[in-house]
Amino acid sequence: MGKPTGFMEYKREKMKEQPPLERVSSWNEYATRLTDESLQKQGARCMDCGTPFCHMGIEIRGTAAGCPINNVIPEWNDLVYKGQWKEALDRLHMTNNFPEFTGRVCPAPCEGSCILAITDPAVAIKSIERTIIDKGFENGWVTPRIPAKRTGRTVAIVGSGPAGLAAADQLNQLGHSVTVYERSDRLGGLLMYGIPNMKLEKDLIERRVNLLRLEGINFVVNTEIGKAITAEELRSQYDAVILCVGAQKQRTLRMEGAESGNIHLAMDYLTATTKSLLDSNFKDGKALDVKGQDVIVIGGGDTGADCVATALRQKCKSVYQFGKHPQQELTRTDETMWPKDPNIYKLDYAYAEADAQYGRDPREYCIQTQKIVADKNGDVKELHTIQMAKIMGDDGFHYFKELPGTEKVWPAQHVFVAIGFEGTERTLPEHFGVNVTNNRIQASMKDFETNVPGVFAAGDARRGQSLIVWAIKEGRAVAVCVDYHLTRVKVNA
Questions:
Q1: Domains of the chain
Q2: CA distance 122 to 51
Q3: pLDDT for the residue 489
Q4: Among 111, 185, 219, 324, which residue has the least CB neighbours within 10 Å?
Q5: 343, 306, 339, 338: which is closest to 321 by C-alpha?
C-alpha cells in the first residue's frame, strides 16, 4: 500500500495546531488538517507490510494493540495516496460508523502498532482518517442511507454514547425500527458533555445525529428510564432492549478533608462547562468558573488533562495535575513493546498550553495527597502531599512507598477529582433486574444478552471504562447479536 519507498522519502507531519497561548482564549477546535498534498505524502508512508498490525484490534495484557474496530487502514492510506478520497471514505465507513469522532478523540492505538513505528515515527493514521471523513461531508459524499425494507421488529436503546449510536446505526440499516433514549438534554453521551469542545466540537455530533435521524432512527431526550418510563413498559413496547448506559459512576476521594467545599468530580465540572457554553455561551452563569483561582486536578489521565485545559481557558491563577505513577519513559519499555500501544511521555494539548503559560508541565508524578485542609468557611484551602517511589516487591508486584521528608503544602481553592470510574451506575440495571458484577452489567461477549431475556448490554456498561473505539466495536457487535435474536425467535407474541 502507498508508495514503496514513501516511508524513506517523507517525514511524519502533525496536524496544524493553533499556538497554545492563542488557543487558550478560544473554546473552538485547536487543530486543523494538513493540505491534501501533505496527506497524500502521509498516506505514501504506509509500508505495504506483509502482515499489517495496525488493524488487528486486540488487547495484550490490558493494553490495546491495533484498531479495535479493525479499520482496514492500509487500504484507505493507499487510496489517499492515489487521491481517491471518495473511495477511501467508502472503505473507512465499512468498519467505522463515526470517523469524525475517532479521528479527533481516539488515542490511536493503531499508530502504536504501525510496523514503521518500530524504528521511525508511525504513519499519521489519525490525521488521514479525520480528513477523509471531513472531505466526505464537505463534498456531499455522506448522505442519508434509507433502508429499502423494514422488518417490523423494534429495538429500544438506552444511552446515546458511541456504543448506543453505533448499535442504532447498524440495526437501522438492517431494517429494524430503532428508538434511542437519552436522559440528558443532548445526545452523544460522554462525546457531548465529557469531552471539551476544543477537542470535539459539538456540531459534529449534532450533524451525525441529524443524519441518523434522517435515516429513520428515533431519538428521545430528557427521558430517564425508571422515572419517565419503566423497564416493563419499555420491554412490552419493543422486541429487544439494549443497555448502553456507560460507566459513569465516578470514583471519589476517601481521605481527611474530602468533604470540603469546592471539591468537584471531574465530569461534573466538564459537563457544566460544556452545557453552559452550548446553552448560552456562558451567559447563564451556570458554569463553574475558576478564574483567578489555584486549581489542582487529582488524577493523571485524559479526563484530568481536559480539566487542566478547561481551567486554563477560564484563566485560572495556577493549575497542577497530580498523578500517582512515575513520568513515562521517552521511548518504549519492555512493558509496552511493539505492537502494544506505547505508554510514553507526550506533551498533549493541555500540557503544552500550561507549559506555554506557566513555563512548566502541570503534571506532578508519584505524588500522594494525604489530606485536604479547609478554610473557616469549609471550602478547600490547601492540599498536603508526599512523594512516593514505585518499587518492585519480592512477589513481583509493584508497590508505592512514601518518601519521608518530601511533604509539601499546595494552595488550592478548587480541586477536581479525575481518578476514573468505578463502573456503571446501579439504579438502571437494578430496575431491569439484570445482574451486575464488579460494577459491570453481566452480558457475555458471545451474545451480549443479560440474564433477562431480550435485554442486552454493550459498551462501557458491560466492559468497563474504555476507549471510544471499543465502544463502537461493542455497539456493532451487539447489533449483530440482537439482529440474530430478532430473526430467530418469535417476539411480542
A1: 6-138 (1.10.1060.10), 154-247+422-488 (3.50.50.60), 252-419 (3.50.50.60)
A2: 16
A3: 60
A4: 185
A5: 306
